[in-house]
């Protein structure tokens, strides 16, 4: 199989897909630094630049119509009706263009007597709560509907059977795929009408159903994993300090907050400055994560973004904007595994749709487990059946340059904001900040 990638960034998709013999046929990225990363690692794969040019290139057969289309477009306010009339709202232009790319690919694949493509789209979980109903517009357009689907509240998983494509979506958290990072992202799978996408993005539960019936308890525990629900490495059980040769490493939580693109410049003004999840203490001195540690936190190889003259800020931004590689690779494996399943029967036969018209059926799943009419238990939670928990000590890079350590002045500023704004702070972190800023007083 092969794939085309839009909004390619630094190509987490390639690192996830290539080990499974799914290789890129083209990229589409316009940002300068990510484009340099692509050229460095994938010099034989063309970067086509602006994705707005892709439909014409595909229809002219200048580029291949791949088996899989993947991307994570900005999903802001836009109008499906405006798109159909050729009046694209600039804020949602790329998301609507993504639909055009998908349609062009399928048109050419059908012309060449090939199966229409499988589509993978990623976005932040917040798009489900967008006040402009961006998600309802997007999946309506992707499924072949001419009008948006309006509902009061989108669930974190669901299925839409539309006139052109079937669509299933699920929020997945990298924290349960072997990375010590809480990173919840929405993944959408769209397929031809003869494929049931819920069998790709959801999972059938067997003997471990009782474990998953308690998932809600796990998610409600924000600061520490429930030790009674899942087996985890001994190193994660109440351990906050480790010694590596002459280095004392202290962590403040078992997993980090979501790594964000502005981490390189705004590390001291958000929740991470108070809960300590994006800090490490090395020999009792607090420091930020290094670019290598951020690469490890996303599943990238060490120094993947280390190019000649690359700035730390550019590396942080590119890494934070990318995908968690183990999650995407799990989805790729699910796509391959689908070939072995009974494709003629959907798992949700007999379930009552949330909404049904002559053109579509919509199913919303507000709970972590679907119980089908046949007595099957289907996992639609943010965790896969085989939960893997990462160890934050494994991402530590002991040779951190001095520039990543928090100065006394910065420590004082963080503590001052904590006091004036009455913000709670991790006690161990606060104690170290106090020691660190004594020189200011």
Automatic annotation (TrEMBL):
Family matches, as PROSITE patterns: C5_MTASE_1, SAM_MT_C5
For this UniProt record, give its keywords in alphabetical order, as a comma-separated list. Methyltransferase, Restriction system, S-adenosyl-L-methionine, Transferase
Catalyses which reaction(s):
a 2'-deoxycytidine in DNA + S-adenosyl-L-methionine = a 5-methyl-2'-deoxycytidine in DNA + S-adenosyl-L-homocysteine + H(+)
**Transmembrane stretches, start-end:** none
Q: What is this protein called?
A: Cytosine-specific methyltransferase
The gene that this protein is the product of is: dcm
E.C. numbers: 2.1.1.37
Q: Which range is the signal sequence, renumbered to this chain?
A: none
The domain of life is Bacteria
Name the residues annotated as catalytic in the UniProt entry.
75
What InterPro entries does its record include? C5-MTase, C5_DNA_meth_AS, C5_MeTfrase, SAM-dependent_MTases_sf
What is stated as this protein's family in its record? Belongs to the class I-like SAM-binding methyltransferase superfamily. C5-methyltransferase family.
Q: Does the keyword Cell membrane apply?
A: no
Q: Name one GO molecular function term.
A: DNA (cytosine-5-)-methyltransferase activity
Provide the GO biological process annotations.
DNA restriction-modification system; methylation
């Amino acid at each position: 199989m092969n794939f085309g990638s839009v909004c390619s960034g630094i190509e987490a998709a390639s690192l996830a897909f290539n080990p499974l013999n799914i290789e890129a046929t083209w990229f589409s990225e316009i940002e300068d630094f990510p484009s340099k990363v692509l050229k460095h690692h994938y010099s034989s794969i063309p970067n086509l630049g602006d994705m707005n040019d892709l439909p014409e290139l595909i229809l002219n057969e200048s580029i291949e119509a791949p088996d899989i289309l993947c991307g994570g477009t900005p999903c802001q306010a836009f109008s499906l009706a405006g798109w159909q009339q050729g009046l694209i709202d600039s804020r949602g232009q790329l998301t609507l263009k993504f639909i055009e790319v998908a349609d062009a690919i399928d048109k050419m694949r059908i012309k060449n007597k090939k199966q229409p493509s499988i589509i993978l789209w990623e976005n932040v979980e917040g798009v489900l709560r967008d006040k402009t109903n961006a998600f309802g517009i997007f999946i309506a357009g992707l499924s072949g509907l001419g009008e948006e689907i309006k509902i009061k509240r989108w669930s974190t998983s669901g299925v839409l059977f539309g006139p052109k494509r079937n669509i299933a979506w699920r929020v997945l958290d990298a924290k349960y795929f072997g990375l010590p990072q809480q990173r919840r992202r929405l993944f959408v799978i769209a397929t031809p009408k003869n494929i049931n996408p819920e069998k790709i993005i959801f999972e059938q539960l067997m003997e471990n159903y009782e474990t998953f019936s308690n998932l809600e308890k796990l998610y409600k525990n924000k600061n520490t994993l429930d030790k009674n629900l899942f087996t985890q490495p001994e190193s994660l059980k109440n351990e906050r300090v480790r010694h590596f040769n002459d280095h004392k490493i202290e962590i403040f939580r078992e997993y980090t907050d979501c790594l964000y693109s502005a981490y390189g410049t705004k590390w001291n003004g958000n929740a991470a400055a108070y809960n300590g999840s994006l800090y490490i203490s090395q020999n009792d001195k607090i420091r930020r994560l290094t670019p290598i540690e951020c690469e490890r936190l996303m599943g990238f190889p060490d120094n993947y973004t280390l190019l000649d003259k690359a700035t730390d800020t550019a590396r942080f931004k590119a890494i934070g904007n990318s995908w968690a590689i183990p999650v995407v690779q799990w989805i790729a494996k699910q796509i391959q595994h689908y070939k072995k399943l009974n494709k003629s029967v959907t798992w949700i036969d007999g379930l009552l749709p949330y909404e049904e018209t002559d053109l579509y059926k919509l199913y919303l799943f507000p709970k972590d487990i679907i119980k089908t009419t046949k007595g099957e238990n289907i996992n639609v939670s943010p965790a896969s059946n085989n939960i893997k928990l990462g160890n934050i000590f494994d991402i530590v890079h002991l040779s951190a340059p001095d520039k990543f350590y928090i100065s006394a002045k910065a420590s004082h500023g963080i503590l001052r904001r904590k006091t004036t704004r009455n913000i709670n702070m991790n006690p161990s972190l606060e104690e170290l900040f106090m020691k660190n800023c004594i020189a200011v007083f």
